[in-house]
Specification:
Layout lengths: L1 H10 L4 H66 L2 H10 L6 H20 L4 E7 L9 E2 L10 H12 L5 E6 L11 E8 L9 E8 H7 L10 E5 L5 E3 L16 H4 L4 E5 L5 E8 L6 E7 H4 L1 H47 L14 H170 L4 H147 L5
Antiparallel strand pairs: 1-2, 1-5, 3-4, 4-5, 6-7, 6-10, 8-9, 9-10
Length: about 675
């Protein structure tokens, strides 16, 4: 039965076995599938790239061959364009003055040359020289080819060649040739053989090339198994294809060289929607495009085997994943399911269940831990049973004690209420005495405040008196200094006055010296005048001396005036200082008297401050006594309040104790009931 239950549990998606199975199955199968399909796609891409490269190389080689073929005919046309003999024959044909025989010989030479070119190259259908009028008589061709047509299509092509002005023009393959006169397709190259000296002798040279020659040249070119090779124009017209029925039609593959960005390989769908791998190369001569394409399925057939191998690997991965899932079920899922069943039995009360796991892995360790856990739970249940019995007995004793405690608490609560009433009355008396003490303290505080204010005022007056006395001392000192300075200035002024007198004497001497210098210069001038030409230089010196003497005289006069002004200023200053001296003496006396008055004020304020200090000491002693009284009253009030509060608290606690005792009695009864219930619950566990 347990095995069936474990299998059913394993089949549930919520089971750990099923989850592990799904995870491992998805991981193995998913990884195998991803690796297989990635390998398939990678191989397919590599093969596609290699085939594209090989096909492109083949197309490039074929395009080079075709370019080489076209270049041969272009070179041949250039040789004919510069062939002097051909040019002379064409010019002679158009000359009216030559005879019929000569014209016939020239025409035969032209036809012979064209026939020799056509006969030596089996790939040519024919070579023509056509006049603009397209009249048969003006057309020269190699032997064995029909004449020309003159419809609008031919006219347009001829006009295109003429407009090219001697450049080569290639025309796509036509099913019946350029003039629609052949039984097989042909492509045509044309150019105008210009003649600048004789424009009437200009002819259009046409090389008509067999289309099958291109087919033979490209016979070995194969793209894939069922691939096709085509040569198309820029307008997507088919120039060459294996099937001649496709000639002159539009190719289903469009090549946009501008949007290709230099890539020469791409994929496109054909008319039936089959994906084709396309490679192309542009011809250098005609600017046509050689294109090869083949179904991609032709190249990736080999990769189908890899796909089959991938599918086989995925199938083997599924089988391997199923085997691994079954192994996980046997070694992980089934033991866990069995352990879940045992735990459910333990949940129902059977504590004797045990696991039988013998392995040494995590499952075995889990089973061993489960057995130890169930053993510990069994021991815990036994111990709980014993504890429940002890709790039941204790609950009975607690019920009896709670009842007696409840009675005692009621009596204590009544006595506490009576004590609380007496304490309240005592607290009211202490509160009234405290109010009276606070009133006395308020009055004493006012006296102390006034006394303190007087003390501060006295200190300020004393301080101001001291400062005034100091200021007066400084003023006396400064006044003495001023008197001394006044005396010094007076003495210095007297000295300056004497110096100005000395300066005046010196100036008188210098004035006399200047007068004598003038006299000497005049004498020198007279002597120089007597000397004539010999004394002219001395006369100049005498004039300069006289000028210098005049300048010195003016300077001495100026200095004399300045010295006289200085003398008058000194005399005025001396008079002013002499007038100030009595005033300074009086000020000195007044300052000394004011200093004496400040010293007396300071002495009286010192005595007043001493009296205030004595009064402050007495007030402080009174405040200390009042504070002691207040502290005593506060202590008494606090004790009374504390006693009252304690009494009320005791009464409240007694009431609470009574209530708690009642609750304790109820809890004891409830504990007894819970013990009985717990005992009945533990009975269902089997140990």
């Amino acid at each position: 039965m347990n095995k069936i239950h474990s299998k059913i549990h394993f089949l549930r998606f919520k089971s750990i076995g099923m989850k592990l199975f799904v995870i491992m199955f998805c991981a193995i199968v998913g990884l195998s599938t991803i690796l297989g399909l990635s390998s398939y796609q990678l191989s397919k891409g590599i093969i596609k790239d290699e085939v594209s490269l090989a096909s492109l190389q083949a197309i490039v080689q074929a395009a080079d061959k075709l370019d080489f073929l076209f270049l041969q005919y272009e070179s041949l046309s250039k040789q004919l364009a510069v062939d002097s003999e051909l040019k002379r024959n064409l010019e002679s044909i158009d000359q009216a003055e030559i005879g019929t025989l000569q014209r016939h010989n020239s025409e035969e030479k032209v036809r012979s040359k064209l026939s020799s070119i056509s006969g030596s190259d089996s790939r040519l259908l024919g070579v023509r020289l056509v006049k603009e009028s397209l009249v048969e008589v003006d057309s020269y061709k190699s032997s064995g080819i029909p004449g020309v047509r003159t419809d609008d299509d031919i006219q347009a092509k001829m006009k295109e060649i003429e407009d090219a002005k001697g450049k080569i023009v290639w025309f796509p393959t036509s099913k019946k040739g350029f003039f629609n006169s052949y039984a097989e397709p042909a492509l045509t190259m044309g150019r105008l053989l210009r003649n600048m000296n004789h424009p009437e002798a200009e002819y259009i040279l046409l090389f008509e090339i067999k289309e099958k020659s291109i087919t033979e040249m490209l016979a070995n070119l194969q793209i894939g198994v069922s691939g096709q090779v085509e040569v198309i124009t820029d307008s997507n017209r088919i120039v060459h294809a294996k099937d001649n029925n496709l000639l002159e039609s539009q190719s289903f593959i469009h090549i946009n060289k501008e949007s290709a960005g230099g890539e020469t390989t791409f994929t496109a769908d054909d008319e039936e929607g089959i994906e084709q791998l396309v490679v192309y190369k542009t011809l250098k001569t005609t600017k046509w495009t050689m294109m090869g394409y083949a179904p991609i399925s032709d190249f990736v057939k080999g990769t189908n085997q890899l796909l089959y191998v991938t599918l086989i690997v995925i199938l083997l991965a599924v089988i391997f994943a199923l085997f691994i899932g079954y192994y996980v079920f046997l070694n992980v899922g089934r033991p866990l399911a069995k352990l879940c069943n045992l735990m459910e039995e333990g949940e129902q009360g059977n504590l004797q269940v045990r696991t039988t796991f013998q392995s040494e892995d995590e499952i075995g360790r889990l089973g061993s831990s489960f057995n130890q856990m169930m053993h510990q739970i069994g021991m815990l249940v036994d111990q709980t049973n014993r504890s429940a019995q002890e709790v039941l007995e204790t609950a009975d004793e607690l019920t009896q004690v709670s009842k007696s405690t409840s009675l005692s608490a009621g009596e204590i609560a009544d006595a506490s209420r009576e004590i609380a009433v007496g304490a309240s009355n005592l607290a009211m008396e202490a509160e009234s005495e405290s109010v009276l003490a606070e009133h006395i303290a308020e009055k004493i505080h006012k006296v102390s405040t006034s006394n303190y204010a007087m003390e501060q005022s006295a200190h300020r007056v004393l301080q101001v008196s001291g400062q005034g006395s100091d200021y007066m001392d400084q003023l006396v000192h400064k006044t003495d200094v001023i008197v001394d300075m006044n005396r010094t200035i007076v003495s210095q002024a007297e000295g300056l006055k004497k110096s100005t007198a000395s300066i005046q004497k010196i100036l008188e001497l210098m004035s006399n010296l200047t007068q004598q210098t003038n006299i000497l210069s005049m004498n020198a001038t007279i002597e120089a005048a007597r000397a004539g030409e010999a004394g002219r230089g001395f006369m100049v010196v005498a004039n300069e001396i006289r000028n210098l003497a005049d300048s010195s005289k003016q300077s001495i006069q100026t200095v004399a005036e300045i010295t006289d002004e200085i003398r008058r200023g000194i005399e005025h200053t001396t008079a002013s200082l002499n007038a100030v001296s009595p005033v300074l003496a009086e000020q000195m006396v007044s300052v000394k008297e004011a200093s004496t008055m400040f010293q007396n004020v300071k002495q009286q304020m010192d005595e007043f401050l001493t009296e205030i200090d004595n009064s402050s000491i007495a007030v402080k002693e009174l405040i200390e006594s009042q504070q002691l009284l207040s502290v005593s009253i506060s202590s008494i009030s606090a004790v009374v309040e504390e006693t009252s509060a304690s009494t009320e608290e005791v009464a409240s606690m007694s009431s609470q104790q009574y209530v708690v005792s009642e609750q304790l009695v109820g809890l004891s009864s409830r504990l007894e009931e819970m013990s009985e219930t717990f005992k009945h619950v533990l009975v269902k566990f089997k140990t």
